[in-house]
Design goal:
33% helix; 19 strands; 2 domains; Glucose Oxidase, domain 1; 518 residues
Amino acid sequence: MTAGLQEERPGLFAKTGKIMGNNIFSYFIIFLASGLFTCTRNGISYKNSNITVEEIKSNIEYLASDELMGREPGHPGIEKAANYITEKFKSYGVKIIPATSSYFQKIKFEKAAPPHEASLSFLNSDFRQNENLIQIAGPSLTKNLEFVYLDYAATAEEYAGISLKNKILITKLGGPGLTGRSIFNFSDEKNILAQQNGALALIEIPANTFDWNGLASYFGHTRTILSNPESKGSEIPHFYLSDPEEKITEKLKNNSDGAIRIDTPGFASDSFYSSNIMGFIPGTNPEKSDEFIVLCAHYDHIGAGLHKRGASVADSIFNGARDNGMGVVALLAAAKHLAQNPAQRPVLVLALTAEESGLQGSRFFTTNSPILLKNIVFALNNDGAGMTDDKIATLVGFEKTTAKEAIRQGVKQAGLLAASDPVPHMNLFERSDNISFAKLGIPATTMSPGFHQFSGALSEKYHKVNDEVDADFSIDYLHKYSLAYAFAAQAIANMDNKPEWVDGEKYQAAASELYKND
């Protein structure tokens, strides 16, 4: 989508919102006469008898059925799920986003498979793939070369006076002060720096505090990544190397350059397409027509097959009823409710793909949004692993924004209590699609089915073949939970003031930059 079309869109939405506003009174009379409004608070209708237990049951049973084969991107099952969701959008009256041509935001992915065999030899030591070496990216390379060791290779100053042309860069993983996911994000940046300085390969050595087996398990399998045509032919082999006793690191301090042998067939990749599903519900207040609320939930899961951990001949389908079938059902309920009872602000309804592959669908949306990001004022994500408390809905990031009270009231109207994140040490806020919006400055929260700890009953079904609509699955709770999400979304979309980060939140700086001209 061109920048010119983006710039024109807020005016178009204002006009659409005005049209909706002119007709809203007639809609109100129709709904009032039919008895659909049973509870009103602050001018907001919270009850809609059209969101029935029967429809909730039908939606979850289909989305978590064996027919969809675990909804893995690149496989037919997720395409069936996508078509199901779009048909629901159409039936509810959810519109295609103006200036786009369909509900589908098509995304090209690559399935990247690491080599079974690769090796490095230097400083009288040998390293082999899946033992003490992991190739995490890049093409083939077989050659005798020279290496250069830099401590972290984190700044341009470290490269000053160093020639890396046609050499291999060896460095520590991460950088000064980096923790958590940022270490691996910086690993990608370091790869680019190495290429820019002429290196033919990059080797990073994790500190001995890292779980090497965990790294090998994650990076040793085929991964789904966004296709980037601009990077074709420019990638270099990129390795992690195990040095638990720091013997190699000590040698490198005294031997900052030398000879190295590299032998790798590189990654193999196949491309495929999957789609985010995007819908639009106009608002009723022209003055808020450029203040979009995003509602999102990922509809992908981890698929099927005997090669997957936990699969067996008896059952090899990971149905994903709780993760994230419940979230998608709630998203559909919110879409239906808001299409029938429009709020003041316009709403984008997003069913996102490839969350299980590293939040790829939401990352693609935020970098290719048909709506100017500065016009998105809040994102209410829906994701979880299941319910262990049927009296609550859990809100990850509940205290981070000024939408807290609106969310609380919406959830309450569905007969549930809004509860804060019970496991902040797990950093769930940065592990679902809400973070793709939050890191850009857009206030965001994730609603999850009620739970108190990420263990026990939750972990017994999380990413397991028994995450099905079984005897333990409560349709009645899912109905309440779906209403809670719909009502919370409506309450946010009707707030007098735009939602914001509360003072002191680390995303405030990004928000100031994003909304600086507003």
